[in-house]
Amino acid sequence: MNTKDQGLDSAMSSSTLEEESDSECWQSDSECWQSDSECWQSDSECWQSDSECWQSDSECWQSDSECWQSDSECWQSDSECWQSDSECWQSDSECWQSDSECWQSDSECWQSDSQCWQSDSEYWQSDSEYWQCGSECWQSDSVLAE
Length: 146
Known about the structure:
Elements lengths: L2 H143 L1
């Protein structure tokens, strides 16, 4: 092959390489576009994901609102417990008053028992007088017998 032929072959070979390189670039560009499309889809998924997060955040807010309502109910319940405790305290106060009445009643019983004891003491003294009278009668009867 002469120099001219070598030059032609070299030029043809160079042209083919350029076409192949351009084709690769197009394929590469196509891949980039596909990649960009995937990125867009990915971005769309991210947006959907972000939307879900927002909905989730909204649900969390609703949940937080429910928790606040629940906390409010707990506070009302606690208030009811406090009222109930107040009623228990009033009831306990009534029990204390009732116990005080029982104590007063017991005191009256004790006073009544004391009166019975004093009355019994009077009977005992009276019985003693009768016994003394009986003794005197016995002594008198003894004197009469002499």
